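G.,

No rush on this.
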Amino acid sequence: SLVVLFGATAGAYGAKLGSDERELILLVWQVVDLHSKKVGTLHKSLVKADNLELSDQCREVSGLTPEGLGKAEPLDRVLQQFSQLVSSDLKVLGRSSYTLCSDGQLLIRQVLHPETSKKNFLLSDCFYSFYDLRKEFHTCYPSSAAVKDQTIKSMAEYLGLGTDEAEEDFGVWQVKTMVAIIFSMLSEGCNHVFTEPETVKYKYETALNLTLASFFFPLCSSKSETVDSETVIRARGLPWQSSDQDIARFFKGLNIAKGGVALCLNSQGRRNGEALVRFVNSEQRDLALERHKHHMGSRYIEVYKATGEEFLKIAGGTSNEVAQFLSKENQVIIRMRGLPFTATQEDVLGFLGPECPVTGGKEGLLFVKYPDGRPTGDAFVLFSCEEYAQNALKKHKEILGKRYIELFRSTAAEVQQVVLNRYMSTPLIPTLPTPIIPVIPPPYTIATGSIRDCVRLRGLPYTAGIDDILEFMGDATGDIKPHGVHMVLNQQGRPSGDAFIQMKSADKAFMVAQKCHKKMMKDRYVEVFQCSGEEMNFVLMGGTLNRSGLSPPPCKLPCLSPPAYAAFQTAAVIPAEAAALYQPQALLPTTRTPQASAAAPPTVTYYPAQAAQLYMNYTAYYPSPPVSPTTVGYIAAPPGAVAAAATATHTPILPQPGALVRMQGLPYNTGMKEILSFFQGYQYAPDDYNGLIQLSDQARSVLQAPKEWVCL
């Protein structure tokens, strides 16, 4: 028997059903006995959604109202009634088993499964297998329209069924027409047989694809595996603690390939909020793309197309040690971070205790090491069941030796990436993807001059972004210069409530200030003032602009280190005039006079491209486990640019990534002796500072003779 099922949500209808994350509000069904060609009672049930607001399209097509839905039952009770009524109808027809039949994939895959997953209740087994009437129809009538172009109405017209949609209630006409189409397919001329239903996977299966090792280690295997680019997506904006099972739950209803979730890591082995997901076919991938900006908890997730090569780059590659560790399937993987460098397998097993036994004992442990064999403090542990893994996670931040240990869920792909990042000389995964269009094209330039062609927005909501500002500007957005919207951040890297906008002319800036001053954005009014590029420059560099005039940026005062910026991988050149503001003045010679600076050859300083934007552009970062303070990252300049600069003048350039670190939160009475004592056991190269920055003789003596302490 078939149970013909039709449904509708409070939002989009037809080909976009489920794409807007709106809840189910209607279910209509009828049992069909394929042998006797009899039907059961037609049932129609309204569903009470948490949000009773209906879209205009829903109101027009369905004729339903919020008042009527408010009296309905919630989805879990409606599904219980569905099971009871179907069982009752089957008994009347003398049948015991059935399979669902729906108009396409969307109702089952994009509505029912995602919604029940979010509401934390399980669907019965019947919703994991169903017939797609459109596919069955195209199989029975190959000359009909393509499957993606089929609708209930087009299939009825192809068969010449004379049903009038206006004569029946919404949903009732659709089910009656679907039943008529099925009977036509069962007629003597066609004798269609329903044999291969669509299936929905009950759960995501983790696995290690050992043939992927050949992608990075060609000597391990002569066979290389390819991944169809039409089956891969990139999910962006994931919470850092999300696991592969969480991602599979986000795509609930769609069939992910075995081992098809790969969490992306940065060069430090931490999750960067992205994942690549491989589906079983292109049809499932296309449905996944419709979940762009659907929510995981309170965060929306961006979903984009990706390539098979990208998936292999992240999920592929392994060593014999990793392959052996991951050879046991259906294991729960936990990652440990912060282990003492002297920790042994016995220490880890003792830390976990008898309440969470490790699969295979010592064989279920994998220590991550650097290429020279030194331990990194990370390890992966296998557990045979969820209960043991939960017991292990309860030991998060407990002490082993003199250090607290962090534990969080992991995946097979993450194991491979972390090991490979330590094994290979260059990082496998970039810190952040290169943007398609840079926010500010290098070389970095900042507005100057006294022409009042800029406006300042003050009092912005802290949650406001670039899109909110453009919406606030209204028609005036067409008068904004390219890359002319600059969010001002405070010293902690958070939005300060201010923004500057560069307009095409002073007249345009004046009109915007007049029109938008004290206009509301969200629940706050925003002040808009006309200003000059010079004034904007001062504030973006860290100064203040108030009624008393301009206060110089703090970076113009002597300081030990530049403000903290996140490290990025691409380099950019910024003018020496701007770069000089961020030099560590306490370690530089006495500032030269402006005349001397003018006569000297221009210097070139390299900073990361995003760091060169200073406080200008607000970018949201997704923290990775464990959350820790951001450190300064300096990146070596491109070889070609270095050579060009060297031919002009000697320019001190940082020799390698990570040459310097910045410390925040020091006690005020801390001296150099305490700082070097804090880093005891870590190697540093004092000789390298000669070519790194210009030092006074006194400072150089301190760095080169660390056993002799000098107070500066």
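When you get to it, here's the other one too:
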Amino acid sequence: SLKMASDSPESLMTLCTDYCLRNLEGTLCYLLDNETLRLHPDIFLPSEICDKLVNEYVELVKTDSIFEPHESFFTLFSDPRSTRLARIHLREHIVQDQDLEAIRKQDLIELYLTNCEKLTAKSLQTLVSFSHTLISLSLFGCCNIFYEEENPGGCEDDCLVNPTRQVLVKDFTFEGFSRLRILNLGRLIEGVNVETLLRPLASLAALDLSGIQLNDVGFLTQWKDSLVSLVLYNMDLSEEHIQVIAQLRKLRHLDISRDHLSSYYKFKLTRRVLNLFVENLVNLTSLDISGHTMLENCTIPSMEEKMGQTSIEPAKSSIAPFRGLKRPLQFLGLFETSLCRLTHIPAYKVSGDKNEEQVLNAIEAYTEHRPEITSRAINLLFDIARIERCSQLLRALQLVITALKCHKDDKNIQVTGSAALFYLTNSEYRMEQSVKLRRQVIQVVLNGMESYQEVTVQRNCCLTLCNFSIPEELEFQYRRVNELLLNILNQSRQDESIQRIAVHLCNALVCQVDNDHKEAVGKMGFVMTMLKLIQKKLADKTCDQVMEFSWSALWNITDETPDNCEMFLNYSGMKLFLECLKEFPEKQELHRNMLGLLGNVAEVKELRPQLMTSQFISVFSNLLESKADGIEVSYNACGVLSHIMFDGPEAWGIYEPHREEVVKRMWAAIQSWDINSRRNINYRSFEPILRLLPQGISPVSQHWATWALYNLVSVYPDKYCPLLIKEGGIPLLKDMIKMASARQETKEMAR
């Protein structure tokens, strides 16, 4: 019943359901008294739509952190005259007693309650209202549903300490559930008498008693003419159990598998037991004996094995008792047994640990109800993806995504699943993956980062994100990704490797994106976070990748974004700039990043007065002579000064150094650069450069701007010629050539 991750486009039904659930007020409902959702009176929906609404709602609450659950959601389905429910699947803490109570008038045919730990015995009473229509029921993992709260009689002080006591309900049975055929009581609480509970059921077809310990299962024979499926996963078996099972001759599916790590286990499977099953259960198409130890040799000696290609013909079976099968089994569970490594296994589908196919079959079969087994199977898949090459990539990805969504709070699955995703999404598999599938990967990765502060999960998730094209592929979750990464970087104790990857991702996310994105991220505290990281590194006197990436990220996020430039100044960014310059005089990459950022700050007219101090101007002037990173540091220092000069002599509010002296040094610097320099810089717009052309107040600024344009369009014509034309640069250059104040060499270059 698990919803598999899929690769085909969503159906119109799914899209509409999703839209309505995210906009209940604007579509199906209105708000009564500003709090209770009510269905519009003219809405009538059949069960095909209502079932989908309820099941998708549960899925959204579970897997989409942005989706807000509604207290009164289930009351929308309280009246069968306007909304019909038939088949619903509810999970975990999402559902409470009052929710089931709200839909008690519905004629439910199928009700799956999986791990609904908040349900109590009140819900048992509600189940009775579905008794006349229910065909299929699962109470798997509903560990409190047989408990009711008993209020103690005389309420003394004890009331405050322990107002309610949990009492086991002993008198509930399935009396009156006349149509019930399929029942899952997996992980039922100890103390409930299963035999009494089930006795009233006339003809059960499928029964799941996973994880329940019963010494006597003789009562099962009352359904020997109807039972086609029996699951006794992790039940301690004995000879008596085997004799009872052998009498259930109608069985098509039998699962007596176990988790071999769970507890000491006396029972061993023998050749005789398997022979007994093959002889008596003639309709068997599916058998699961995973996790069992074989007491004696059930295998055919290898010299007697028919050689040649592997065969699923029972006659050639390497497992001796299965030579008696009339036809191959549809499914045979052999996970964590020695049998799965044999040559000839008479089944179309085998779960095991021998190869990719068996491992994927195991993940598929056990994900929903056996996370403890699934996490070990995913671990095997991780090894296959890492060491060999996955041949069923699409299936592998879909299964891992499904497992991660289903078990959002299971640490083992989150650790192994996120690690497997890293290898399944790397570049060699890229071509085989659709946009939709890659988006599903991103969603589960972000879910993992949200739910787990655990180092391994965080690292795996960050590494997996590095397999995507950033920012393009993350654009649809832009805010959320940034919030999660900033959250990681703001933690007081940090893992070095995660810090490095997270800063790298943050930098990539603000590179080449629209200004509104940058402003939004700035408001989340991005600038402050980066400055704090820089501060820490300075204190440790280390200039590593984190330091360089942090400055690079600040350079990117301040590009044409005045609000972020202002934040940089307000949070003492200039002080850190000077300290870094002093502490790391030889770090060229660092200098380039810092000056690129200051170039962005200098483009904002209102902020330039803050750069107008003797100390800053001296530093920028001295950097004009820097040979760091080719011309980049000198070029950026000159850019900063060009914008300051553009404000005219009256804005020069300092005595030292003199304005003329700085201008002279700027001319000298520009003349020293090679006009054919290849560049380590990326312009999205020429607007800040172009505004320095039509003015006569600072010829040197005009010259720097013309040099910049000339260099970029001659070295990278394909990229920058169209940009220059698009942004109206040609008429500005033509006008400048006519200006008397412009220097001759500037005009030559402009021509």
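Residues 613-750 form a domain with the Leucine-rich Repeat Variant fold (CATH 1.25.10). The longest strand covers residues 87-91.

Enjoy the weekend,
O.
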